[in-house]
Amino acid sequence: MTDGPVRQASLREHNLGLVLRQAANAMRPPSRADIAAATSLTRATVSALVDDLIAGGLLTEVGPAPRAGAGRPAAGLVLSASGPAGLGLEINVDYLAACVVDLAGAVRHRDVRHADQRPGHPDQVLAEVAELAADARAHAEREGLAVAGAALAVPGLVTAHGVVRLAPNLGWRDVDVPTGLAALDGLPVTVDNEANLAALGELHAGPAGPASFLYVSGEIGIGAGIVLHGALFRGARGWSGELGHVAVRPDGPACSCGARGCLEQYAGQEAILRAAAAGGIDDLRARATAGDPGVLAALAAAGAALGVAVAGVVNLLDVEAVVLGGIYAPLAPWLRPAVVAEIHRRVLTDAWSPVDVRPSVLGADAAVVGAAGSVVRAIRDNPTKWLTRIIP
Amino acid sequence: MTDGPVRQASLREHNLGLVLRQAANAMRPPSRADIAAATSLTRATVSALVDDLIAGGLLTEVGPAPRAGAGRPAAGLVLSASGPAGLGLEINVDYLAACVVDLAGAVRHRDVRHADQRPGHPDQVLAEVAELAADARAHAEREGLAVAGAALAVPGLVTAHGVVRLAPNLGWRDVDVPTGLAALDGLPVTVDNEANLAALGELHAGPAGPASFLYVSGEIGIGAGIVLHGALFRGARGWSGELGHVAVRPDGPACSCGARGCLEQYAGQEAILRAAAAGGIDDLRARATAGDPGVLAALAAAGAALGVAVAGVVNLLDVEAVVLGGIYAPLAPWLRPAVVAEIHRRVLTDAWSPVDVRPSVLGADAAVVGAAGSVVRAIRDNPTKWLTRIIP
DNA sequence: GGCAAATAATTCAACCGTTGAACAAATCAG
DNA sequence: CTGATTTGTTCAACGGTTGAATTATTTGCC
Questions:
Q1: DSSP readout, B82-114?
Q2: What is the pLDDT of residue A68?
Q3: Average pLDDT over residues B111-127
Q4: Residues A266 and A308: beta-carbon distance below 8 Å
């Protein structure tokens, strides 16, 4: 709202980003002329901008594609696969993960270490994350990728400065991640909620997904990432998305948060496993596939509770889609019908503007991939920062 | 996200708006030098921009304020009170209203006609609105105000093109307002949901209110206007804010929408009056003031239901404030405690980032004033459009 | 094979808006 | 009255985009 002034340089900044995004989002590698036509900039301007982007290592020319008809062949422009890359990190209850995504969005490296993180002290966990990060970085550099930054996904509430205010299922409280991760010599690290980064991952996964959706992350807790008009919404103070503590029945069972009837008590991982008398998600899935009536009933009940909460969100925010992530992704075949039914029943505008309910396409990797992607997205959206970092 | 290109002219466009907003939001009439300092533009640039804005009738100079210390006295700049004005219109169940707001945000004219609008045909109602609008416009012109545009508030779902898709309490369905209001010879008219415009009214009412809040409009139905980061959020397709049909108890009483346990069944006007056995809001308020236990219990119950729904919203969106509007404004003394209690109980982050729950400052006028304000805000945010309309 | 048509990319003078410094205007303190 | 101080304007310079002309490279046709 109260935005800054615009000087001449901001012009260039904006248009560099525009050209880069145009090259990124096109179906086929566009020519300079294509970009000029799409952006309504001049060919002269686009040429100048592209020169800068190529010099900065963000764009590369690919051999001319065979053309139909006469005319000089166009040089296709693609995001440089050897340009700056993003490092994604994730701390979760029972694993640590890292991955590297290049500027074009391709996952170039992935690493997961399964182990219960709850007993360890936060410093110990962060040290292991730093180790994982160093490994991933070395691997990337062996492929000729320069890692531009890192993002860490954590299942909890994170402040704007990267302090984990509260991560109940990890047993963390007020952990200052940036100082704990100082080992990554100078690499800028951002920290964010796991559901937020997973939502970003989903947003950028498909070629053209919905611009407004709710990503629901089912884990031991239930989080949500809210994407509105193609941008992640973090809330006024960074604490949006606490879907797990939306009330489903105001006088339902007591929740660990102190309230009653929270969604978590009906559709959280532990509630589902208890209701289905299952030992784990794999077991649950197997028995659901086999048609175990108790398991099917438990999943239907969880889906209905989830549907009630999600329908409220849709009524309120009018999102186009709901993405089922975390443990909900593999359970989607059994949860989805109940969620869809509640949306049909409760969303006022459902008749003329339906809501797409679908499982996550990235599955369990959504948060790490989203984290790594968020780093390269920042460069894509404001290439100037990167270019001036290269050539000051 | 996929925004357009930035040409040289966009620079000017942006900076004109920046200067104008700076003059509007300042505590005292700022000088050109003040604006330059606040925006980090040059004094030269600000002078050039201010010249354009004065020539276009959007800014005016006020006599130099007495200054402390040496130096040439500064010419204060204020939004022109004789510049373009906005016409606000409202159709509600039991009244029609109009108001005129000048560029500085002052309400210069107001008119309300109480009458039940439900029996009349939409065309008939729109004809009366047109009459009211013509009156208001004539009145404004007698004061030397040129009306730049109009905005109409309607208690229902409105498409982007101004068609009222559904207004249940008015009995309207697919009413094309712009063609029905064509009588306002050429005046551009936008149509929007009543709660949305009321939220805008609240946003601009105070000098510096919260940038993210939920405006709850209690009427026969319950609507909500969502303001995020200082901008109204309309949803992906324009149908956000259906708070009245958020489920409070999934298997509660049947609602007119076809679902069960919607908030409207607990905290809608009719539900409250029925529970309190009251004839109207005035009666209810009088008996609440007198301490009637039945009325107090009914209001506490309604407040609790509202609080459950609102707490869910806060958990999800992390808004800084909740504004109680419509009939909730006069009933706030009795509703607020229950709402606050539910927020304390259910909002996870409440302990370290509290939510302000307060009654609307504009009261019943919020929607009309917000509608009129939205017209002048559009000019404030993009003065270029207005300037080129004056001098093409 | 050669030439015209067509399309891509670059070059360059012109234009537009902002900048920075110099300058004129208006006031106060002594 | 004079010097200090702050406001506002003027003007050459600069950065960035534009549009037209030019060069480059291919296809299609005779």
A1: TSEEEEEEEE-SSEEEEEEE-TTS-EEEEEEEE
A2: 66
A3: 92
A4: no
Q: Residue B313: its chain A contacts at CB < 8 A? A: 316
Choose the final residue of a domain: A23, A49, A79.
A79
B285 with B304, same domain: the answer is: yes
Instruction: Give nucleotides in strand C with any atom < 7 A to a protein C-beta.
Output: 4-12, 15-22, 24-29
Residue to substitute from A8, A216, A317, interface B, most B β-carbons within 10 A: A317
Give A284-296 pLDDT, tens digit per residue: 999 999 999 999 9
Residue with tokens 């219109």: B89
Q: Is the CB of B33 under 7 A from strand D?
A: yes
- In this prediction, residues A123-150 reach a mean pLDDT of 95
State the Rg of chain B over Cα.
23
- Convert the pLDDT of each residue in B35-46 to its tens digit: 999 999 999 999
Q: Which amino acid is at A235?
A: G
Both B295 and B339 in a single domain?
A: yes
Give the range among A227-236, B120-129, B204-213 with minimum mean pLDDT: B204-213
- Asked if residue A2 has pLDDT above 70, the reply is no
Say whether both A338 and A239 belong to one domain.
Answer: yes
Residue B45's nearest nucleotide, by CA–C1', is C18
Residues A281 and A335 in one domain: yes
Answer for B392: CB within 7 Å of strand D.
Answer: no
Two tokens, residue B109: 């004219």
CB A202 within 8 A of CB A209: yes
Shortest Cα–Cα distance, B99 to chain A (Å): 26
In chain A, % of residues over pLDDT 90: 85
Q: CA B109 to CA B74: how far, in whole Å?
A: 33
- Nearest nucleotide to the CA of A5, by C1', is C18
Residue B248 is part of a domain; what is its CATH number?
3.30.420.40
Measure A38 CA to nearest chain B CA, in Å.
Answer: 9
Residue A2 forms part of a structural domain: no
Residue of B232, B255, B317 to mutate, testing the A interface (most A Cβ within 10 Å of its Cβ): B317
| CA angle, A186 then A187 then A189, to 5° | 120
How many structural domains comprise chain A? 3
Paired sense of beta strands A95-101 and A157-158, if any? unpaired
| Same-domain pairing of A132 and A250 | no
Q: Domain boundary at B79, B101, B121, which?
A: B79
Same domain, yes or no, for A69 and A157? Answer: no
CATH classification of the domain holding A61: 1.10.10.10
pLDDT band at A66 (very low <50, low <70, confident <90, very high): low
Q: Is the CB of A28 under 7 A from strand D?
A: no
| Contact flag, residue B44 CB and nucleic strand C, below 7 A | yes
A30 to chain B, closest Cα gap in Å: 16
Q: Are A308 and A346 in contact (CB under 8 A)?
A: yes
| A313 assigned to some structural domain | yes
Co-location of B252 and B320 in the same domain: yes
Q: Is residue A186 very low, low, confident or very high in pLDDT (cuts 50, 70, 90)?
A: confident
Size of interface A-B (CB pairs under 8 A): 185
Element (H, E) at B279: none
B56 within domain boundaries = yes
B390 pLDDT band (50/70/90 cuts)? Answer: low
Return the higher-pLDDT residue of B12 and A391: B12
* Structural domain includes residue A1: no
Phi first, then psi, for residue A154 (nearest 5°) are -130, 140
- The model's confidence at residue B391, banded by pLDDT at 50, 70 and 90, is low
For residue B357, the surrounding DSSP H or E stretch is strand B356-359
pLDDT digits (tens, 9 = 90+) for B47-70: 999 999 999 999 999 977 667 678
Structural domain harbouring A42? 8-79
Task: Please tell me the distance from the alpha carbon of residue A192 to that of residue A89, in angstroms, as a whole number.
Answer: 10
Do A129 and A52 lie in one domain? The reply is no
- Give pLDDT, residue A331: 98
